[in-house]
Amino acid sequence: MTATATGNPPRGQVAPPGRALPWSGPGTAGTLFGQLETDLGVAISADQGVFSANAAAGAHAFTGLEAGIIVLARVMAVGCARGLARRLAEYQ
Question: What separation in angstroms does the CA of 35 have from each of 2, 31, 38, 61?
Answer without folding.
Answer: 24, 6, 5, 40
